[in-house]
Amino acid sequence: MAVPISQMWTVATYVLRKKLAGEKKYPLVLMLEPLFRCNLACAGCGKVQYPPHILKKQLTPEECFAAVEECGVPMVSLPGGEPLLHPQIVEIVNGLVARKKYIYLCTNALELKRRIHEFTPSKYLTFSVHLDGLREHHDMSVCREGGWDIAVEGIKEAVKRGFRVTPNSTFFDGTDPNMVREYFDVVMALGVEGIVLSPGYSYDKAPDQQHFLGRAKSRRLFRAILSNRKKSWKFNMSPLFLEFLMGKRNYECTAWGSPAYNIFGWQKPCYLLQDGYTETFKELVETTKWEEYGTSSGNPKCANCMVSCGYEPSAVQHGFGSLSGFFAMAKAALFSSYKDRGALDLLHDSGFAAHHGSLVEIGNIAPAAAAMAAGHQFEETRA
Ligand code: SF4
Ligand code: SF4
């Protein structure tokens, strides 16, 4: 596991305090979206589909700080849109660092190299760079030729200047697990702290609705990717969440663990779905009908979802909130090779490669943007 001890300690003590206080629904990571506009138009993104008058809007630094203080999270993710397009992003980041929040600034890195001198390295600040695989795959995914090279230049510059950097990848149906494993070698050689990854989730707004993963397909893909791991690969994620992706354990959605706040307010129920907004976090927790969400709810929108914003908080709360979870987490961190002959066979399965040619072609899609998506059929078969 690549997460620094100080960050793990902060999260562990936070979870324990909440547990001792008897709080059932508490947040771990705030998904703070300061704006929706972006300088890319990725296949699978539901953010940049908003009309122009919405794309022009943005949160002020004061609104960002108020949301963070209101919910009291130890970690803040700054997705978007592209946060580096926000004219006050440096002020927002500095204000969050001053509040000792661990920040993941999610960027496509097109502007990273040019603007990196405006930021100060800190253990609280990580640049989470959107990279969907190797050059060809990433450029197709973000619908921008040359996007991979620019992002890698940004990563190198940030690493050189002493910043924490975690490449952040979303993988869709048709992804070749061999390509992903090669990608892990390439990004770890860049000196990054660790890798972040997630299966895709389909937004109603996203233009590419054909390539999202169902649960069984996700587990099969992540078993092929994450079994027989190399020692050099580090992941900036809960090891129990990685086991969940591989189909080794099951969790229920903890959507309140990663609440989303943006220009509309607190989004019900999660970062992915938009079933209304509330003015306060308290109202979000108290008025959302949580039993209507998550895989076991039968809600078709949640049936295939395995994304980190819903299920990684479940893994973190399990890991830090119980002895059995703690031992499972320690075991997963210590014995992380996951030798699996069947998974090796999957790497030679032409079923993955058969989809490879059906990725979205650059220029063939309408504008889109982000990196978290889900399907619509319920498939609870083993991966
Ligand atoms: S299962 Fe996924 S889509 Fe449904 S509430 Fe949870 S995170 Fe959101
Ligand atoms: S997914 Fe692509 S288009 Fe959407 S916000 Fe991220 S970089 Fe921009």
Features:
single chain; alpha/beta; 9-stranded mixed β-sheet; 15 helices; 38% helix; globular; disordered C terminus
Describe the structure.
- With 383 residues, the protein is of the alpha/beta class.
- It has a single domain (5-373), classed as Alpha-Beta Horseshoe (pyruvate-formate lyase- activating enzyme).
- It is 38% helix and 12% strand.
- The protein has 15 helices and nine strands.
- The chain has a nine-stranded mixed beta sheet, with helices on both faces.
- Helix 12 (308-321) crosses helix 13.
- The protein starts with a helix and ends in a 27-residue tail after the last helix.
- The site of one iron/sulfur cluster has 16 residues, from loops.
